[in-house]
Here is the input.
Amino acid sequence: MAKVAYQKLEDHSLFFWGLLGLHVFVIVLGLGAAFYMVEWGHVVTGMNNQIVWGTPHVFAVFLIVAASGALNVASFSSVFSRLDYKPYARLSGILAIALLVGGLAVLVLDLGRLDRLIVAMTTYNFRSIFAWNIYLYTGFMVLVGAYLFVMMDRRISRKSWPTKTVGASAFVWRLILTTGTGSIFGFLIAREAYSAAIMAPFFIAASFLYGLAFTIPVLLMMSRETRQDLINNEMLRKFRGLLIIFSLAVLYFTAAHHIMKIYAAGYRDVEHFMLLGGGIYTTVFWLGHVLIGNVLPLAILFFPSKDRTSWHAIAVASLLFLIGGVANMYVTIIGAQAYPLNLFPGMEVTSTFGDGVVAQYWPSTPEVLLGISGVSIAMLLTGVALKLLPFLPHQHQRQS
Amino acid sequence: MSSRRDFLKSAASLAVTTLASGVTLYSMSGEASAANAAKTPRWGLLIDATKCTPDCSACVDACGKAYGWHNESYSPTDEQWIRKVNVKDPESGASFSAPVMCQHCANPPCVDVCPTGASFKRFDGIVLVNRHICIGCRYCMMACPYKARSFVHHGGRGSDEDKREYPRGGHGTVEACNLCVQRIDAGGVPHCVEACQQKGQGAILFGNLNDPESEIAKRVATYRTSRIRDDLGCEPGVHYQGIS
Here is the structure.
């Protein structure tokens, strides 16, 4: 096997600095929004006592799900011995950590009592899947950090077993982590749109797609920045194939989830709401998640043209998958909460607390800024990491 | 030889004594726990929806006034520890009205999901929020099938909360009906029950569900009562009469 050479980012274009500057600006805005919410309370958000998790959670969960998927490329290389992916393994690892930090930052900044973060880290109820996730997230960061170390340390990386062992552990851990994230929703018996074990594999499929969809644009951006062809046509074709498989898996789980619910008479009303009569949520589901987020990018990747493996087709498809990912989380998290709790099945219910009524929610500016700042935190961390350590491969060379 | 026999005899008698005493203790502890279970109160409510009228909000007003959450605007961001729910059967047209508050479940999903253990169930079945370690993650609100919990959306400091009989969690935390635990511990009854007796229709009965001699236990044993979404297996401590 040819030895892979890695590089740090050395000289930078104005575009790169501009992009980093933009991320810093968005992060400052996001932090400002978070402290505005702390000072004035969540009353300045669009959230209420029915929609208790709003736009920050959409971005936080999206980033956390994408984080575990971003490790895919490294796993292909070390766990499944697909050496073509090895040059991207380091980038894959650092991107996974950065996305997770971005997601967790948003999650934490949206807490009602940010000042009690130390309580969250020191007081646990181990019956709570949330508490498990705190360990799963921190464990993931430690494990991927160790994975990067064994890949990058000159002496240790000479042997294959440390990379394989730590890589396999990280792979298993990420599967458990995403199962945990999906189960946050799947375990909820109260909300009719959830309460299904399929949420866990659905989130795993989504993580594969969104993680890769983050990795590819970063690689393409870095190709531009290093003025080197970091992904050749053969790898583009492989990434294209993976995106297609992952997108089809997401569509499969989406279909399976909804068909199963429709089959059970008790869930038909909520399914009617999500798929037909839910207004903005139905629109976001069909237009955002299904059409823009899967069908359109699949069409771009599928339709035969001489350009189909070109970088810009894959870049556009990746960005569409990411937009679809946010839409998917929006419907999954907010749409499911908007549907009223069913205290008296089959009855018409009214109260002063929104019983029997679809909840109204519109994201406020601080919420959106906080959510988007999570993406910027992830991208800024990645940019700085690429500058500090050799995570990027040199111009792609075929592995033998 | 005889000393060995003596030793074996002694060992056997020691073993029998030890095991027998263990069995006895085990059996006694089983009886004791059954007796303790009977003694341990399980506080609950029985709400008679056939007496409760849609225009009466005495229970809600009393609770809101006592804990300071009441707000006539009923904004979706305002806290509501208890609310009147009006229910109508679309087929028959039959309707009823009843208050809904924290159902103080025996298997509370809010307690299961709370990452810090701020949501907890007391020995007597009252489900509470520890205001000091609630981090405001709102997962309990996602998990509660009864929409019984409220998040304090309004920020601000320097409220007079500590002057109340029961200090509230404050902004950024989650609150819910506490079954007036401070009154129960002092031998009283919840505000809603008192208000319903005095100003309402006497539709809410409070008592110890574990005490077969209590009025509530007798009525639950005599009449057909039900609990909201009993199918979910949460085993609420709030029973209703006339809702099904």
